[in-house]
Amino acid sequence: MFDTLPEQPADALLALIGLYRADPRPQKLDLGVGVYRDDSGVTPIMAAVKAAEKVLLETRTTKAYLGPEGDPVYTDLLKPIVFGKDPGGRVAGIQTPGGTGAVRLAADLVALARPDAKILYGAPTWPNHLQILNATRLKAVPHPYFDVKAQTVNVASLVAAIESASAGDVVLLHGCCHNPTGGELEPADWRTVLKALQETGVVPLIDFAYHGLGKGLEGDAYGVRLLTDNLDEVMVAYSCDKNFGLYRERVGALYVKARDEKAASVVMSNLAAFSRVSWSMPPDHGAAIVRTILEDPELTRIWREEIDRMGARVRGVRSALAAAGPGLKAHETQTGMFSTLALGPEQVLALRKDHAVYMAGSGRINVAGLHVRDIPAFVTALKAVGY
Ligand code: PMP
């Protein structure tokens, strides 16, 4: 039976965790895996999350099954955080296992509705985007989104890609905090993208995985809200795994705006059906934490303060990095945890071997893995490998 299977490549980034752990050098820097770290290098459980877990421990009376759509109170409470208001009955929402589950359901939905649709994506992107699109057999069409050498976003090529596509094709956009480049669409760029979408009928699938870690909860939502307010059909794949620090609990949601309430209800029935055959129903604990926080104004206030502090720390490290050398200036205007440095594989290897600096083979760094006091040593190491 299994002789025909090809061996799948191991996840290089996860392998890096093992190498980092085994490295005895005390000055070692982990800029690899994409989780937020605080000033002491820890990925903390947020105080609002701890408090919500306590409430759940004391008040939950059952763990009986929910349905394939998860907890609708969770998806409803999250809506004003995502959209800035109640977006109304045209927006269907379903709980998913993480942002990954949301992207997967969106791809399943498109593949069923429009099996021949092209999915435009900007390169480079989160590698799992391509794996998910391949798994659903959708035709993924790249355009150059980010010039790593120049550290600039290529808005013109994004718009050209949309203009060359047809109504019913899909463009995959990052809502904020682009992974892996940090290259952000500014408000004026979002307005240009909106115009191209209105002219062509191309539908956006917005992956919104790092809400709050860039320009804050309001600033980061500009594009998502502009497009949802002004287009008839939009998909938003949301993750609470980063902005609530719930990574392993797998907390996400997919929101789909359809032409009218009836169409939204048909979309919802399809999403529930996909959920049922994929994971039957999403895991509850993480979503219950988010629900408990958002139901309680005081816990919500604490959470908002915490996510604001996290975003501020990332911006602080970015400013310090940008000030550390002329070649690093762009890191200040980039947003979120990631940047991609123009480094070849040998340079990345030399950084690890000779300087104990760990990063993805692509040159992607997790800015949150840096402490401001590490920056001089980091910049010295970069210079030593010819950056
Ligand atoms: N989209 C992007 C761009 C991501 O970087 C990630 C996480 N690496 C996800 C989605 C999925 O996040 P989650 O852990 O919630 O599945």
Strand order of the largest sheet: 2-10-9-8-7-3-4
Q: Overall mean pLDDT score? A: 97
The set of bound ligands, ions and cofactors reads: 4'-deoxy-4'-aminopyridoxal-5'-phosphate
Quote the distance from N terminus to C terminus. 49 Å
Question: What helical percentage do the residues reach?
Answer: 40-55%
- Which percent band covers the strand fraction? 5-15%
**Which outline best applies?**
globular
Low-confidence stretches: none
Structure, described:
The chain has two domains: 12-45 and 300-385, Aspartate Aminotransferase, domain 1 (Alpha-Beta Complex), CATH 3.90.1150.10; 49-297, 3-Layer(aba) Sandwich (Aspartate Aminotransferase, domain 2). Helix 2 (47-59) packs across helix 11 and helix 4 (98-113) crosses helix 5. The chain is built from 14 helices and 13 strands. Helix content is 45%, strand content 14%. The strands form four sheets. Strands 2-10-9-8-7-3-4 form a seven-stranded mixed sheet, sandwiched between helices. It is an alpha/beta fold and 387 residues long. The N and C termini lie far apart (49 Å). It has helices at residues 12-22, 47-59, 72-83, 98-113, 127-135, 155-163, 187-200, 216-219, 222-230, 261-278, 285-295, 297-322, 345-355, 375-384, and strands at residues 29-30, 91-96, 118-123, 139-144, 146-147, 152-153, 170-174, 203-208, 234-239, 252-257, 338-340, 357-358, 364-366. 4'-deoxy-4'-aminopyridoxal-5'-phosphate binds at residues 34, 98-100, 126, 174, 179, 207, 209, 239, 241, 247, 252.
